[in-house]
Amino acid sequence: MATCVLEIELTHEIRDRQGLGDYGQALVLLRFHGRPLGTMRVPCQDGMLRAADLCTAIESYGNLSRHLTQAALTHWLMQHELPITAQLPTWSIVICTRDRTDDLRRCLDSLLKLQTPGGEVIVVDNAPSDSSTARLVADYPVRYVREDRIGLNWARSRGARVATGDIVIYTDDDVVVDVGWASAILEPFSHPCVAAVTGLTMPLELETEAQELFEAYGGFGRGFRRRVFNYTMMAPSAAGIVGAGANMAIRRELINDMHLFDAELDCGTVARTGGDAYAFYQLLVKGYQIVYTPQALVWHRHRRDYASLRKTLASYSVGGFAFLTRCWLRHGDWQALAVAASWFWNDHLHQLACTLGRRPGYLPLDLVLAQITAIPLGPWAYFVGRRLEGAASAEVVPETVLVRVQP
After folding, report:
1. Helix (H), strand (E), coil (C) string for the chain
2. What is this structure's pTM?
3. Averaged pLDDT, 91-99
């Protein structure tokens, strides 16, 4: 049964939510003065989420009082004790897309509602099959860039080269951003050691079994606690835990000088994923900090059909082990082997045991096997990708034609 995704602002009166149709339950994001605190699932009855049920669920929510106290103190300090002494850095939002105009339209509509003034939005059209994306973008106050080398990383790299902001904020075309997203993801850059920031990614919808299973597997969420990552607290080759590429921001100078995305990784390549993790890895190895802040909130539309889910989970194995192979062979990082072994044992084999034992929350067997059987493709994808990467880098790429459209 489908799940309704809702937000509840705890500073407002809690009322019945009506008109929910056939939804059997709701995934509720709790917010306090806009700050995300956590999520909970609450049953719906007769197309309604009753206030009484919601209040009962809130009262029983673990550690809610502690979260509320922290959020209330932070809000008070921001209002009374912490005057803004530094302006936000200049910024450029880069959306990499390929032949998904419906998703892109929804993303661009949400960006128009951002509460952060200034900045620019760049749409990088990656090896499009037609001109539909260019025609769509012409109706929005954004810059259009075409990148003909197929691959998400090549599109990210091109976006950073043409950006004018000090910070490049990346999101995907299948994302809807929160109104305060840009300000929240820019704020940690006030510290000079912070090279990148990631944020909270929630599901935009949970309409199908595939979307529910993706969330059960872990989704893109990284929790509701702000965290700071550096090489002293984690192995850089475990960089995948710091956040997702659909919601990340990086200093433009570092992207270009370190060639963070000039690697044959992620969507559109044989590796399928891993481009964001490799960028984070390089930053951590150099001694920079990466901050995860749940205040930087976006909503991601997960793949709706089961076949796409199976392909996505298999891609995570291919890209993840291609990334770890790269860390080991190209950088001589022996910790990558330990990370690979831990991932295989604690994630893949653990999930297989849960599935065979039919423990609560287990994934279907075919999804688990799709991930496990894809692991050997990771090292293969690394070697093939390295060859293709060298060929692509040697090509003479024509100058990009930029179209600036006024609102």
Report:
1. CCEEEEEEECCCCCCCECCCCCCCEEEEEEEECCEEEEEEEEECECCEECHHHHHHHHHCCCCHHHHHHHHHHHHHHHHHCCCCCCCCCCEEEEEEECCCHHHHHHHHHHHCCCCCCCCEEEEEEECCCCCHHHHHHCCCCCEEEEECCCCHHHHHHHHHHHCCCCEEEEEECCEEECCCHHHHHHHHHHCCCEEEEEEEEEECCECCHHHHHHHHHCCCCCCCCCEEECCCCCCHHHHHHHCCCCEEEEEHHHHHHHCCCCCCCCCCCCCCCCHHHHHHHHHHHCCCEEEEEEEEEEEECCCCCHHHHHHHHHHHHHHHHHHHHHHHHHHCCCHHHHHHHHHHHHHHHHHHHHHHCCCCCCCCHHHHHHHHHHCCHHHHHHHHHHHHHHHHHHCCCCCCCCEECCC
2. 0.92
3. 97
